Protein backbone atom coordinates (compact mmCIF):
# COMPACT_ATOMS: atom_id res chain seq x y z
CA UNK A 1 0.00 0.00 0.00
CA UNK A 2 1.39 3.40 -1.00
CA UNK A 3 1.79 5.94 1.78
CA UNK A 4 1.53 8.89 -0.63
CA UNK A 5 -1.92 10.05 -1.84
CA UNK A 6 -0.26 10.91 -5.16
CA UNK A 7 0.98 7.38 -5.96
CA UNK A 8 -1.14 4.37 -6.95
CA UNK A 9 -0.35 0.79 -7.88
CA UNK A 10 -2.30 -0.09 -11.01
CA UNK A 11 -3.55 -3.44 -12.29
CA UNK A 12 -5.32 -4.40 -15.50
CA UNK A 13 -8.63 -4.20 -13.63
CA UNK A 14 -7.98 -0.72 -12.20
CA UNK A 15 -6.15 0.86 -15.14
CA UNK A 16 -9.24 2.41 -16.69
CA UNK A 17 -10.27 4.11 -13.46
CA UNK A 18 -6.86 5.01 -12.04
CA UNK A 19 -5.24 6.15 -15.29
CA UNK A 20 -7.70 6.73 -18.15
CA UNK A 21 -10.51 8.35 -16.17
CA UNK A 22 -8.19 10.06 -13.69
CA UNK A 23 -6.19 11.68 -16.51
CA UNK A 24 -9.20 13.82 -17.43
CA UNK A 25 -8.76 15.54 -14.05
CA UNK A 26 -4.97 15.59 -13.63
CA UNK A 27 -2.02 14.21 -15.68
CA UNK A 28 -1.11 10.63 -14.78
CA UNK A 29 2.50 9.46 -15.07
CA UNK A 30 2.59 5.68 -15.62
CA UNK A 31 5.80 3.92 -14.62
CA UNK A 32 6.11 0.50 -16.30
CA UNK A 33 8.67 -1.43 -14.25
CA UNK A 34 9.78 -4.86 -13.09
CA UNK A 35 11.50 -6.05 -9.94
CA UNK A 36 14.44 -7.56 -11.84
CA UNK A 37 15.15 -4.22 -13.60
CA UNK A 38 17.93 -2.35 -11.75
CA UNK A 39 17.29 1.01 -13.52
CA UNK A 40 13.61 0.66 -12.53
CA UNK A 41 14.56 0.35 -8.88
CA UNK A 42 16.74 3.47 -9.06
CA UNK A 43 14.09 5.48 -10.92
CA UNK A 44 11.12 4.60 -8.72
CA UNK A 45 12.14 6.54 -5.57
CA UNK A 46 12.97 9.58 -7.68
CA UNK A 47 9.53 9.52 -9.29
CA UNK A 48 7.94 9.09 -5.87
CA UNK A 49 9.87 12.06 -4.53
CA UNK A 50 8.69 14.23 -7.44
CA UNK A 51 5.09 13.09 -7.04
CA UNK A 52 5.13 14.28 -3.42
CA UNK A 53 6.94 17.49 -4.30
CA UNK A 54 4.46 18.39 -7.05
CA UNK A 55 1.64 17.94 -4.52
CA UNK A 56 -1.04 16.52 -6.77
CA UNK A 57 -0.14 18.25 -10.03
CA UNK A 58 0.23 14.73 -11.38
CA UNK A 59 -0.49 11.20 -10.16
CA UNK A 60 2.19 8.53 -10.32
CA UNK A 61 0.77 5.15 -11.37
CA UNK A 62 3.03 2.10 -11.03
CA UNK A 63 2.56 -0.92 -13.29
CA UNK A 64 4.51 -4.10 -12.50
CA UNK A 65 4.95 -5.56 -15.99
CA UNK A 66 5.74 -9.04 -14.69
CA UNK A 67 2.30 -9.14 -13.08
CA UNK A 68 0.45 -7.06 -15.69
CA UNK A 69 1.79 -8.47 -18.97
CA UNK A 70 -1.46 -7.68 -20.78
CA UNK A 71 -1.12 -3.97 -20.02
CA UNK A 72 2.51 -3.89 -21.06
CA UNK A 73 1.69 -5.60 -24.36
CA UNK A 74 -1.28 -3.30 -25.01
CA UNK A 75 0.91 -0.18 -24.72
CA UNK A 76 3.82 -1.66 -26.64
CA UNK A 77 6.28 -1.69 -23.74
CA UNK A 78 9.52 -3.23 -25.04
CA UNK A 79 12.14 -1.87 -22.63
CA UNK A 80 12.16 -0.99 -18.96
CA UNK A 81 11.68 1.36 -17.39
CA UNK A 82 9.22 3.07 -19.73
CA UNK A 83 7.35 6.08 -18.34
CA UNK A 84 4.27 7.39 -20.16
CA UNK A 85 2.27 10.53 -19.42
CA UNK A 86 -1.51 10.34 -19.88
CA UNK A 87 -3.79 13.34 -20.41
CA UNK A 88 -7.48 13.27 -21.28
CA UNK A 89 -7.45 9.51 -21.58
CA UNK A 90 -4.50 9.26 -23.96
CA UNK A 91 -0.70 8.79 -23.67
CA UNK A 92 0.79 12.09 -24.85
CA UNK A 93 4.52 11.64 -24.17
CA UNK A 94 7.02 9.19 -22.75
CA UNK A 95 10.65 8.66 -21.81
CA UNK A 96 12.74 5.50 -21.61
CA UNK A 97 15.32 4.60 -19.02
CA UNK A 98 16.30 6.08 -15.65
CA UNK A 99 16.78 9.72 -16.62
CA UNK A 100 18.51 12.22 -14.29
CA UNK A 101 16.22 14.25 -12.06
CA UNK A 102 16.75 17.49 -14.02
CA UNK A 103 15.59 15.86 -17.25
CA UNK A 104 12.53 14.37 -15.58
CA UNK A 105 11.64 17.80 -14.19
CA UNK A 106 11.94 19.27 -17.67
CA UNK A 107 9.68 16.50 -18.98
CA UNK A 108 7.07 17.22 -16.30
CA UNK A 109 7.27 20.99 -16.66
CA UNK A 110 6.55 20.75 -20.39
CA UNK A 111 3.19 19.21 -19.59
CA UNK A 112 2.36 20.30 -16.07
CA UNK A 113 4.12 23.55 -15.28
CA UNK A 114 6.79 24.38 -12.76
CA UNK A 115 6.30 23.13 -9.23
CA UNK A 116 7.32 26.59 -7.98
CA UNK A 117 4.18 28.03 -9.58
CA UNK A 118 2.05 25.79 -7.36
CA UNK A 119 4.10 26.92 -4.36
CA UNK A 120 3.28 30.53 -5.26
CA UNK A 121 -0.43 29.63 -5.31
CA UNK A 122 -0.06 27.99 -1.89
CA UNK A 123 1.58 31.17 -0.56
CA UNK A 124 -1.27 33.27 -1.95
CA UNK A 125 -3.84 31.06 -0.28
CA UNK A 126 -2.00 31.36 3.02
CA UNK A 127 -1.99 35.15 2.70
CA UNK A 128 -5.70 35.18 1.94
CA UNK A 129 -6.26 33.13 5.09
CA UNK A 130 -4.13 35.55 7.12
CA UNK A 131 -1.45 32.91 7.74
CA UNK A 132 1.72 35.00 7.40
CA UNK A 133 4.07 32.37 8.80
CA UNK A 134 2.67 29.75 6.43
CA UNK A 135 3.01 32.12 3.49
CA UNK A 136 6.61 32.88 4.45
CA UNK A 137 7.40 29.16 4.44
CA UNK A 138 5.91 28.68 0.97
CA UNK A 139 7.77 31.72 -0.36
CA UNK A 140 11.04 30.36 0.99
CA UNK A 141 10.40 27.13 -0.90
CA UNK A 142 9.92 29.12 -4.10
CA UNK A 143 13.22 30.94 -3.52
CA UNK A 144 14.97 27.62 -2.98
CA UNK A 145 13.46 25.65 -5.85
CA UNK A 146 13.21 28.39 -8.49
CA UNK A 147 14.89 31.69 -7.51
CA UNK A 148 14.29 33.10 -11.00
CA UNK A 149 10.56 32.39 -10.96
CA UNK A 150 8.82 35.41 -12.47
CA UNK A 151 6.09 35.37 -9.80
CA UNK A 152 8.48 35.41 -6.85
CA UNK A 153 8.75 39.21 -6.77
CA UNK A 154 4.95 39.50 -6.93
CA UNK A 155 4.24 37.13 -4.05
CA UNK A 156 6.98 38.74 -1.97
CA UNK A 157 5.35 42.13 -2.59
CA UNK A 158 1.99 40.69 -1.52
CA UNK A 159 3.62 39.32 1.63
CA UNK A 160 5.15 42.71 2.48
CA UNK A 161 1.78 44.38 1.92
CA UNK A 162 0.02 41.88 4.17
CA UNK A 163 2.71 42.50 6.81
CA UNK A 164 2.01 46.23 6.69
CA UNK A 165 5.21 47.25 4.92
CA UNK A 166 3.47 49.07 2.08
CA UNK A 167 6.48 51.14 1.02
CA UNK A 168 8.66 48.06 0.48
CA UNK A 169 5.81 46.28 -1.30
CA UNK A 170 5.42 49.20 -3.71
CA UNK A 171 9.15 49.22 -4.44
CA UNK A 172 9.20 45.46 -5.04
CA UNK A 173 6.24 45.65 -7.37
CA UNK A 174 8.10 48.12 -9.56
CA UNK A 175 10.80 45.49 -10.11
CA UNK A 176 8.59 42.67 -11.40
CA UNK A 177 9.52 41.32 -14.85
CA UNK A 178 8.28 43.56 -17.70
CA UNK A 179 5.94 40.86 -19.03
CA UNK A 180 3.98 41.02 -15.76
CA UNK A 181 3.53 44.81 -15.59
CA UNK A 182 0.06 44.61 -17.12
CA UNK A 183 -0.96 41.24 -15.72
CA UNK A 184 -4.40 41.58 -14.05
CA UNK A 185 -3.08 40.24 -10.75
CA UNK A 186 -0.21 42.73 -10.68
CA UNK A 187 -2.49 45.59 -11.74
CA UNK A 188 -4.92 44.71 -8.94
CA UNK A 189 -2.12 44.49 -6.37
CA UNK A 190 -0.80 47.87 -7.46
CA UNK A 191 -4.29 49.29 -6.94
CA UNK A 192 -4.58 47.74 -3.46
CA UNK A 193 -1.24 49.25 -2.49
CA UNK A 194 -2.40 52.65 -3.72
CA UNK A 195 -5.25 52.62 -1.21
CA UNK A 196 -3.25 51.01 1.57
CA UNK A 197 -0.69 53.82 1.31
CA UNK A 198 -3.48 56.37 1.90
CA UNK A 199 -4.17 54.78 5.28
CA UNK A 200 -0.72 55.45 6.72
CA UNK A 201 -1.41 57.47 9.85
CA UNK A 202 -5.02 57.95 8.68
CA UNK A 203 -7.81 58.54 11.19
CA UNK A 204 -10.47 55.89 11.71
CA UNK A 205 -13.27 55.69 9.17
CA UNK A 206 -15.85 57.06 11.63
CA UNK A 207 -13.62 60.05 12.36
CA UNK A 208 -13.42 60.75 8.65
CA UNK A 209 -17.20 60.47 8.31
CA UNK A 210 -17.58 63.01 11.11
CA UNK A 211 -15.18 65.37 9.33
CA UNK A 212 -17.21 65.09 6.12
CA UNK A 213 -20.46 65.69 7.99
CA UNK A 214 -19.01 68.92 9.33
CA UNK A 215 -17.33 69.90 6.06
CA UNK A 216 -18.41 68.10 2.84
CA UNK A 217 -15.58 69.86 0.98
CA UNK A 218 -12.91 68.04 3.04
CA UNK A 219 -11.32 66.19 0.12
CA UNK A 220 -8.59 64.60 2.23
CA UNK A 221 -11.22 63.00 4.47
CA UNK A 222 -13.21 61.79 1.46
CA UNK A 223 -10.21 60.18 -0.23
CA UNK A 224 -9.04 58.45 2.95
CA UNK A 225 -12.58 57.26 3.73
CA UNK A 226 -12.68 55.71 0.26
CA UNK A 227 -9.42 53.92 1.05
CA UNK A 228 -10.92 52.51 4.27
CA UNK A 229 -13.93 51.26 2.29
CA UNK A 230 -11.71 49.57 -0.30
CA UNK A 231 -9.76 47.74 2.41
CA UNK A 232 -13.07 46.60 3.95
CA UNK A 233 -14.26 45.34 0.57
CA UNK A 234 -17.05 47.91 0.29
CA UNK A 235 -16.22 48.76 -3.30
CA UNK A 236 -19.53 50.43 -4.08
CA UNK A 237 -19.15 52.74 -1.09
CA UNK A 238 -15.58 53.53 -2.13
CA UNK A 239 -16.60 54.25 -5.72
CA UNK A 240 -19.31 56.61 -4.56
CA UNK A 241 -16.88 58.58 -2.41
CA UNK A 242 -14.32 58.74 -5.22
CA UNK A 243 -16.98 59.82 -7.71
CA UNK A 244 -18.02 62.64 -5.37
CA UNK A 245 -14.35 63.61 -4.95
CA UNK A 246 -13.90 63.75 -8.73
CA UNK A 247 -17.02 65.83 -9.34
CA UNK A 248 -16.53 68.20 -6.40
CA UNK A 249 -12.75 68.74 -6.48
CA UNK A 250 -10.97 67.70 -9.70
CA UNK A 251 -7.86 69.63 -8.66
CA UNK A 252 -7.37 67.70 -5.42
CA UNK A 253 -4.38 65.37 -5.42
CA UNK A 254 -3.78 65.71 -9.16
CA UNK A 255 -7.24 64.39 -10.06
CA UNK A 256 -7.23 61.85 -7.22
CA UNK A 257 -10.93 61.09 -7.54
CA UNK A 258 -10.75 59.99 -11.17
CA UNK A 259 -7.50 58.08 -10.62
CA UNK A 260 -9.02 56.39 -7.58
CA UNK A 261 -12.04 55.29 -9.61
CA UNK A 262 -9.72 53.75 -12.20
CA UNK A 263 -7.76 51.98 -9.45
CA UNK A 264 -10.94 50.39 -8.07
CA UNK A 265 -11.92 49.33 -11.59
CA UNK A 266 -8.53 47.58 -11.78
CA UNK A 267 -9.14 45.90 -8.44
CA UNK A 268 -12.43 44.54 -9.74
CA UNK A 269 -10.83 43.19 -12.89
CA UNK A 270 -12.23 45.94 -15.11
CA UNK A 271 -15.61 44.28 -15.53
CA UNK A 272 -18.91 43.62 -13.81
CA UNK A 273 -22.07 45.60 -13.16
CA UNK A 274 -20.47 47.87 -10.56
CA UNK A 275 -17.59 48.80 -12.85
CA UNK A 276 -19.91 49.41 -15.81
CA UNK A 277 -22.21 51.62 -13.77
CA UNK A 278 -19.53 53.82 -12.29
CA UNK A 279 -17.51 53.97 -15.51
CA UNK A 280 -20.62 55.30 -17.28
CA UNK A 281 -21.18 57.86 -14.53
CA UNK A 282 -17.54 58.90 -14.65
CA UNK A 283 -17.55 59.35 -18.43
CA UNK A 284 -20.82 61.31 -18.32
CA UNK A 285 -19.43 63.62 -15.64
CA UNK A 286 -16.16 64.16 -17.52
CA UNK A 287 -17.60 64.71 -20.97
From TrEMBL:
Domain Thioredoxin residue range list: 1-113
Family: Belongs to the thioredoxin family.
Claim: GTP-binding is one of the keywords in the record: no
Keyword Transport tagged: yes
InterPro entries, alphabetized: Thioredoxin, Thioredoxin-like_sf, Thioredoxin_CS, Thioredoxin_domain, TPR-like_helical_dom_sf
PANTHER family, A to Z: GEO12009P1
Record's protein name: Thioredoxin
Keyword field: Disulfide bond, Electron transport, Redox-active center, Transport
Amino acid sequence: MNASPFIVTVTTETFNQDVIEASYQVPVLVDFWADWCAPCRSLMPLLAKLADEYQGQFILAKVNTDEERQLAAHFGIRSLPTVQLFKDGQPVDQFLGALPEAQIRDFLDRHIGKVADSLVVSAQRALQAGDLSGAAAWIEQVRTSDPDNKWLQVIEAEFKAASGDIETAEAMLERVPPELHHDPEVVALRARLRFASLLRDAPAAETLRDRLARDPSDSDARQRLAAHLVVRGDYEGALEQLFLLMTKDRAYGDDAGRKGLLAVFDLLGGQGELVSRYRSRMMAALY
